[in-house]
Amino acid sequence: MARLFSPRQPPSEDLFYETYYSLSQQYPLLLLLLLIVLLGLLALLPVAWELAADPAFLTTVLCALGGFSLLLVLASREQRLQRWTRPLSGLVWAALLALGHSFLFTGGVVSAWDQVSFFLFVIFTVYAMLPLDMRDAITAGVTSSLSHLLVLGLYLGPQPDSRPALLPQLAANAVLFLCGNAAGAYHKALMERALRATFREALSSLHSRRRLDTEKKHQEHLLLSILPAYLAREMKEEIMARLQAGQGSRPESTNNFHSLYVKRHQGVSVLYADIVGFTRLASECSPKELVLMLNELFGKFDQIAKEHECMRIKILGDCYYCVSGLPLSLPDHAINCVRMGLDMCRAIRKLRAATGVDINMRVGVHSGSVLCGVIGLQKWQYDVWSHDVTLANHMEASGVPGRVHITGATLALLAGAYAVEDAAMEHRDPYLRELGEPTYLVIDPWAAEEDEKGTAGGLLSSLEGSKMRPSLLMTRYLESWGAAKPFAHLSHVESPVSTSTPLPEKALSSFSPQWSLDRSRTMRGPDEELDTGDAKFFQVIEQLNSQKQWKQSKDFNPLTLYFREKEMEKEYRLSALPTFKYYAACTFLVFLSNFIIQMLVTNRPPALTITYGITFLLFFLLLFVCFSEHLMKCVLKGPKILHWLPTLSVLVATRPGLRVALGTATILLVFVMAITSLVFLPATSACPFQAPNMSSMASNLSWELPGSLPLISIPYSMHCCVLGFLSCSLFLHMSFELKLLLLLLWLTASCSIFLHSHAWLSDCLIARLYLGTLDSRPGVLKEPKLMGAVSFFIFFFTLLVLARQNEYYCRLDFLWKKKLRQEQEETETMENLTRLLLENVLPAHVAPQFIGQNRRNEDLYHQSYECVCVLFASVPDFKEFYSESSINHEGLECLRLLNEIIADFDELLSKPKFSGVEKIKTICSTYMAATGLNATSGQDAQQDAEQSCGHLGTMVEFAVALGSKLDVINKHSFNNFRLRVGLNHGPVVAGVIGAQKPQYDIWGNTVNVASRMESTGVLGKIQVTEETAWALQSLGYTCYSRGIIKVKGKGQLCTYFLNTDLTRTGPPSATLG
């Protein structure tokens, strides 16, 4: 028992569970145990006073009252002792043991049956109510049993032969104690198993909740990386509806239109910026250099945009455009855009001065109103549309490198903040010339100072320029800007907590039992504050505290412990209970103990033997039903007519009504058989030992009543009744109200029998025990019927407390399991939402690089491909269709139609045959997609050209499907839109750039030429380059030559039209030649 008083070891997970178990569950029971003992002692005082008890008894009771009152006060008030709960439990056990031994020798003649019920109470409560581990509890229980047996055996061994036989009584006591130890250990094992399961479920729920919070943060960050916050809420509801309705589908709506998330904003300024000379520079870069260069450049621009309250909208190749005044209106939006444009020009000038690379910045700004939002179903990108946006784009295109080109509308809003000069007419493009509005170039106030400084700091190119390529030189310089990596903000979001992680280490190291119980009542200083995860951890532990059952809760009714939700209560009552068979088996052990005791202390009348024989058959039948599933192998080898037997145990486990009926019948059987021996008494209640002349015949009288019932069986019948009380507590999942009813029934029956109808038996036993001393009466502790009644009431209240405790934790275990399932489902939904969001930004094969356990933010994602087919498909007629008037809500209804077009195009991507098509972006009414991006990179692939470019046919089929979709829309909208498509294939570089709004894109000459194929194409035709025409010819498609055309930036190119009216043919067509 030295372990009981040993100090605790440093915290560990197991010790933490033990501490949680001691404080949250067993500590309140310890207080209740002390309270029950005190009430029992108090109940003895008036009885003893009425019976004029001897001073020794009163002294014992008063000393016990004082000692246990002190223990109760120390345990409940002295916080320092709360961390020494186990030593305190050992002290309580020792005090109870000492009290039991003092009771043995107080108040009269010592008998073998004295204080057996009290020691049984000590044994059972050691397991059920004291915070000891199983080994300590077994040690204490066995020690209590042996101490009673040894003390009485040694004391009563030398007694005269006139006393009843001692050995059968000691054997009966041993059976009682063995049953008490077994029932207590069984109760403790099941409760610890249930509590540990609840504890782990609570931790799993905590980890699941943390993971859920993490996924919510990921989802929020991802959503905000695509959309402004004001639009994100609406879009999130749309995504959730899609997930619930089935991924890829859209929720039912009252109309036939897709949801449109576009709003009009007035009073904004739009900035377009293009890096002049970047295309030539990019052609010299490796894939990694290109992606790094773009990320650093646009990352720097994002920083400038944030400083000047501008929102980046999109990155189109090397073109960057943003808006000020969204989502909240800003009075100085024009100044913000001009400042940003000037800062962008300065950054490029510094770059050029440091590296000697010939690049520049061209910026155009215009102020007006925009329609802003998201169109389509996939690859959402926040965008803006309006005539004012178009004008800003042309302002950039007709601008001067290194200058900010603004319109008169923007100049009016500057209010003289910057000096300007008229833009030369030759810089105007046809669109501006048609408008006829004057435009201006902003004079940078810092330009002169920068020119004076010149290259005083020394050019990087002068030191290393001659040794490295300009692209590498520029990349080296850009790295010093330190732009954030795409999705780097997700690294700062707490990563999902693995369910294998047992506990927060900080929580373990900082755990204090005193803090756990009293943290709600005491304030902690700043140094004692735990992080959010640990705080949530302790909140969960606090919810497991058994004292919560007496407080107001949103889940339970504090009086009945019923769930407040009727559906949950019904689900709990109808839940399966596989452990019922073990309850029945342990109850059979109690019944068997009662049988052995009756056989030891009675003369085994035939009627009693027959009754027990019938009851044994009933119990065996019950156990067979409960354990029939374990006989499946044997039954299946027998006749088919018996194959249904294993299903009996399943029925018992899953049918609540059947379980309640069997459990109640089992307990009632134990109750009835505990008092069966009294049934075989004669009808007369005359006691032969109460006659006046019996004193002289004392030594010659036997200890039996007429009818062959030994008097010593009377106290043992009471002890069997106590075991009947214990049998009721073995059904842990039996409802509290049913246990209360059965315990109350048994208490009433027991007290009625031993205090009323059969009270004369106790008086007869006393008369025989004190025969020859007529003036002497035993004390209260030696009065069988009084002590039996006291034992009944003590066990009744003790088991009632345990029944309430068991009910609470059975329901709590069910509640946590349900919460865990719900949180896991919610987490799965959030993970799907996060995945869907990320795949709306990145291709499916790229998304795992940035989320989950595979997230890698330490390096930029880039990949080069040798054969990618790029498609640009536009609806040029939409520019003429678009107008802004009050009739169409300033262009909103025009965008509604564009949204339908893009959304229908996106729906094609969900078809299995187009699974290899990856949407890249939409640019106004132009749709950009590519195939071949999910294949092995060109650097590693060892395939011939025909195999590696086989996906070109998929892209052609997709282009044809786009045209068919547009025809359907034309039919329903009474329009005559036609598609203009450009295709090209070849090597590209893919990557993810931009920290604020990460964006997947592809770059390279292949992309540029594909764009020119569309812009120089013909309505209703698919234009391709000569190389692509030959590749398609090898796949069975027919192409015919358009001839030589002039392509901007590429000179004269021979292009072809794809004959979409013909299906694939075998040999190459002559029209290609």
How would you describe this protein?
ATP binds at residues 274-279, 316-318, 362, 921, 1001-1003, 1008-1012, 1048. The chain is α+β, with helices and mostly antiparallel strands and 1073 residues long. It has three domains: 13-156 and 166-204 and 571-682 and 712-822, no CATH class; 258-449, Nucleotide cyclase, GGDEF domain (Alpha-Beta Plaits, 2-Layer Sandwich), CATH 3.30.70; 853-935 and 946-1058, Alpha-Beta Plaits. The chain is 54% helix and 12% strand. The chain contains 36 helices and 18 strands. Strands 1, 2, 3, 4, 5, 6, 7 and 8 form an eight-stranded mixed β-sheet that branches. Strands 11, 12, 13, 14, 15, 16, 17 and 18 form an eight-stranded mixed β-sheet that branches. Strand 12 and strand 13 (926-931) form a beta hairpin. Helix 4 packs parallel to helix 30 and helix 6 (166-226) packs antiparallel against helix 19 (532-543). It is elongated, with a radius of gyration of 45 Å. Residues 1-13, 247-254, 455-466, 492-533, 695-701, 853-857, 937-946 and 1062-1070 have low confidence and may be disordered.
Helix-strand blueprint:
Blueprint: H1 13-50, H2 55-77, H3 85-104, H4 116-128, H5 134-156, H6 166-226, H7 229-245, E1 261-276, H8 278-282, H9 287-307, E2 310-316, E3 319-324, H10 333-355, E4 360-374, E5 383-385, H11 387-397, E6 404-407, H12 408-414, E7 420-422, H13 430-435, E8 439-442, H14 447-453, H15 460-464, H16 470-478, H17 505-510, H18 513-518, H19 532-543, H20 566-573, H21 580-601, H22 606-626, H23 632-637, H24 647-654, H25 656-674, H26 676-679, E9 704-705, E10 709-710, H27 713-729, H28 736-757, H29 759-769, H30 784-839, E11 862-874, H31 877-881, H32 892-908, E12 917-923, E13 926-931, H33 945-948, H34 952-973, E14 980-993, E15 999-1003, H35 1005-1015, E16 1022-1025, H36 1026-1034, E17 1039-1047, E18 1051-1058
Parallel strand pairs: 4-6, 14-16
Antiparallel strand pairs: 1-3, 1-4, 2-3, 4-5, 6-8, 7-8, 9-10, 11-13, 11-14, 12-13, 14-15, 16-18, 17-18
Catalytic activity: ATP = 3',5'-cyclic AMP + diphosphate
Keywords: ATP-binding, cAMP biosynthesis, Cell membrane, Cytoplasm, Glycoprotein, Lyase, Magnesium, Manganese, Membrane, Metal-binding, Nucleotide-binding, Phosphoprotein, Repeat, Transmembrane, Transmembrane helix
Function: Catalyzes the formation of the signaling molecule cAMP in response to G-protein signaling.
